[in-house]
Description:
- The protein has 99 residues and is of the alpha+beta class.
- The protein contains 2 helices and 4 strands, in the order αβββαβ.
- Strands 1-2-3-4 form a 4-stranded mixed beta sheet, sandwiched between helices.
Amino acid sequence: MDLAQTASAVEATVEALASETSHPLVVHVEGELAGRLNVRRDPFELVRHSGTAHHVPTRPAVRGRGLGVQLMREVRALARKRMGLERLHLAARSGTGLE
């Protein structure tokens, strides 16, 4: 995914967010968008203490610099402190070695 595609995907995600259930995070390298993710609270009352981190791409040119780790640390803090989540899942595409 190139920078223009990533920026477009981030914009679409942000437009679809409901602030009480979703929060985006982004990471920049040298002033350019390098990665992103979105964390969503489960909407069902019995599991509102749970959330899922979705859409965690990083630009191929900046991979290997720990940006994904940085995003995951930030989402953990965001989920606990701002959203009050007790459990966080990571959604990953199968068949890509991410499991």
